[in-house]
Write a structure and sequence with these properties.
Largest sheet: 7 strands, mixed
Number of helices: 11
CATH topology of the largest domain: 2-enoyl-CoA Hydratase, Chain A, domain 1
Structural class: alpha/beta
CATH class of the largest domain: Alpha Beta
Number of strands: 10
Shape: globular
Helix content: 40-55%
Strand order of the largest sheet: 1-2-3-4-5-7-10
Radius of gyration: 19 Å
Distance between the termini: 29 Å
CATH superfamily of the largest domain: 2-enoyl-CoA Hydratase, Chain A, domain 1
Strand content: 15-25%
């Protein structure tokens, strides 16, 4: 597999960016000594990379992983243990999370090992979560005298429901990959390493029409908190809009001609 290295601005040692497949970008967290703990520099690097990839027309799907052993074991507590409320506020980490939430392209998390606290919240920002057999998820902030602060109380409830979410939030317990799948926290469980399955899925999605994918993602996210009738209106409008695209004509003509379509995102 040919890997093309890309340049971040500037390229931090804690994050790797690779393009292993056409249309697919992979971001790998690389702080193994601290189990990929999310310090401020790494959060900023992830946000910057996702924003750049979102603007890159050659990239159609983004995969985030932490490698074979661990996804991310949470926030870097060394930066927080003596912090005052004002110092925490002035970090403004919400802007880095918003970069992920605002990404228009499909975002896949490939999770091996621990995804705890901020690491679990990072995975929850993805559109799909592929869990390896070693994956374990949790929001253990309560055991440190705090609570989740990057969507753990909100995205988790939306993913698994109030009662399962509060079990994790109240106790700080961990759930393994199969239990996470059963409760709706992950999309799939891979045998062994999550990344090969995530890449196969990313390659499949990268071959589909980018405009349709972007509209699907936008409507699902925007409609989730709207009354049904308003959400259905968004869906109808997006459906109709796609009939002005080259990809719609190409997809339907290819189906009728019994050939593979070629999508160009226009």
């Amino acid at each position: 597999m040919t890997v093309r290295d890309a340049t971040l601005c500037p390229p931090p040692p804690s994050l790797r960016l690779e393009h292993p497949l056409p249309g697919v970008a992979v971001l790998t967290l690389d702080r193994p000594a601290v189990r990929n703990a999310l310090d401020l520099a790494l959060r900023q690097a992830i946000a910057t990379a996702v924003q750049q990839l979102d603007e890159d027309p050659a990239v159609r799907v983004i995969v985030i992983t932490g490698g074979e052993r661990v996804f991310a074991a949470g926030a870097d507590l060394g930066e927080l243990v003596e912090a005052s409320p004002l110092q925490v506020q002035q970090r403004r980490v919400e802007r880095y999370w918003q970069a992920l939430a605002g990404c228009r392209k499909p975002l896949i998390a490939a999770v091996n090992g621990l995804a705890l606290g901020g690491g679990c919240e990072l995975a929850l920002h993805a559109d799909l979560i592929i869990a390896g057999s070693s994956a374990r998820f949790g929001q253990p902030e309560v055991r440190l005298g705090i609570m989740p602060g990057a969507g753990g109380t909100q995205r988790l409830v939306r993913a698994v429901g109030k009662y399962q979410a509060l079990r994790l939030l109240f106790t700080g317990c961990l759930v393994e990959s199969r239990e996470a799948l059963a409760m709706g926290l992950v999309s799939e469980v891979a045998e062994g390493d999550a990344l090969p399955r995530a890449l196969a899925l990313a390659e499949e999605i990268a071959g589909l029409p980018p405009l349709a994918l972007a509209q699907i993602k936008a409507v699902v996210n925007a409609g989730a908190d709207l009354p049904l009738e308003q959400a259905l209106l968004l869906e109808r409008q997006a459906f109709q809009l796609l009939f002005d695209s080259h990809d719609q004509k190409e997809g339907m003509r290819a189906f009728l001609d019994k050939r593979q379509p070629e999508y160009h995102g226009r």
